[in-house]
Amino acid sequence: MLRRLKWWGRIVAWSGGGTLLTMFAFTGVDVHTPWRQIVRIAGQGFVFSTCCIALASIVLPRVVPLARRHFSAPVTWTIVGAALVGSAMAACAGAVLLLAAVRFIEPQRMWQLWLVSLRTATYFTLLFGIIASMMGDLRHRLNRTTEALRTKEREEEGARHAATEAQLASLEARVNPHFLFNTLNSIAALAHSDPSGAERMTTQLASLMRSSLDGGTTSQVTIDEELRLVGHYLEIERVRFGPRLRFSIEIDHEAGPIRLPRLSVQTLVENAVKYAVAPRREGGSVGVRATVSGSHAHIQVEDDGPGFDAAQMSEGYGLALLRSRLELTFGRRARLDIDSRPGRTCVRIEIPIVKC
User: Fold this and answer.
1) Half-sphere CA count of 64, side-chain side, radius 13 A
2) How far is CA 145 from CA 70, 73, 155, 173, in A?
3) Which of 197, 174, 172, 175 is nearest to 186 (CA)?
4) Domains in the chain with CATH codes
5) In terms of pTM, does the model score above 0.70?
6) Of 55, 93, 191, 292, whose CB neighbour count within 10 A is largest?
């Protein structure tokens, strides 16, 4: 109902403008014309304008798409022109019949009025009809181009997402075997001297491997799940490094159910162990903390290693890959900040709160 009222509102507005234009351009009305004559001419012109515009508004949306689908441009515009002339003739006939029905004109003047009004009606119907058709054609092309661009953007985003996940899988495939062999060697060494430690380490390794296998079905986990696996990883590495590896994990209760990309924190912790602990005789400390502030969760991984130049991060590895995954998952709502200098490196992840 509201849509129909808006449609008639536009018809009346266009009819009013067309009536004024026709009245001053073709009927010789000026400031000296008696107002009764002006009202009569305006009323008659308004009826003709309304009939012509309303009928053209009904015909054009049906004729133009049909002609565009089956014919080339010159033939299409010829068909549109013929349809507009036909609608003008029919609209003039309808206006004459309506004026005669309400006794605005005498019946014997119907034929003469139809002939007189046809020339003006055809002129304005063709003018405004062709302009409206061209605007509609341009709008159709714009909408089609916009939709094509959006489709291309979605396809490119999907391709970037697939490429990032493929890079992650490739990275895991390179890292996991090395870590697995070291862990198995540690378990073998503990089997005789510390059987309970070897059993505990086997359980922790199983949890890590299960998480790696589950990655094919889910790309996100809760912070609780992620940091539990990080704890298993650090416990396993402490067997290897002994007192050289010192670590702490702190998590606020509110941060636990918040979701983030799988292995996000694991990647940061592995980097810290690799560059801050493994190369140094005295080892190093790794601290992990998850907090909530406002509408975002903050995960921080800090170590006391030699630091690095964040500007030299290689695309497709480690931190650069993690930053890409965060952007694909959360857009601009997520951040990865790096503060690194000799003796202290702190990497912070900020993500919007998305709970289970």
Assistant:
1) 19
2) 21, 19, 15, 41
3) 197
4) 2-151 (no CATH), 194-352 (3.30.565.10)
5) no
6) 55
